[in-house]
Amino acid sequence: MQSYEVEIKALLGSSERADEVRAAMKKLDPACMIQSKNEQLNHYFEGGDLHKLSDYFSPMFPEDTRRKFLDLARRAKTYSVRTRDKSGEVILVIKVAVDETTSENGISRMELENKMDPSSGIKSIEQLDKLIIASGFQVQAKWSRLREEYVCKGVNVTLDKNAGYGWLAEFERMVSDETLLGEARASIASLMESLGVRELPQDRLERMFKFYNSHWREYYGTDKIFTVE
């Protein structure tokens, strides 16, 4: 079964603002506490063909994942291909837009996340990158971040310290039916209002994303931050 993701971002910037959001979540939902904390590398790719990529990876996936990958390839109008190192776990990520936003930063998306089994021979993000490049993709940009994961009022909340961006909050809900996307978005918007955070407009997010893609080598793996209005 396919799942749909609703994700809304808010730019926090400073560590002090991130502290304020942590405190606001705890005040609003006393049960809210950190679920995990990890370091991540995220590598983005562009220019290839999703069907060809599916052919490359099918032998490494179980049957249900193969079917999901093929379904995403069939539906995709825009898509984002990524590799992730999550504190040593190597993950392939595919996101497909299901609204008018982009697959890289869109609000409503379908996704596939597959942790690579070391028995497949893929034991590092570099090895996974090489397979994707061999299928016809090119590196778009490489990102690094520290991620904290919470659940507040039934919404998944991540606080990310991103190279280039500074602190960013992401509010996410997953639903199993496309007809539930509107309700999920409304519940996220309500939580964000209660916490006093504002959605990062898509046009500014796209400008930030474009700037980082052009300058990622200056920021990847650092604490440096830029400002793009």
From TrEMBL:
UniProt-listed InterPro entries: CYTH-like_dom_sf, CYTH_domain
Top-level lineage group: Bacteria
Pfam families: CYTH
Domain CYTH: 3-215
Membrane-spanning ranges: none
Protein name (Swiss-Prot/TrEMBL): CYTH domain-containing protein
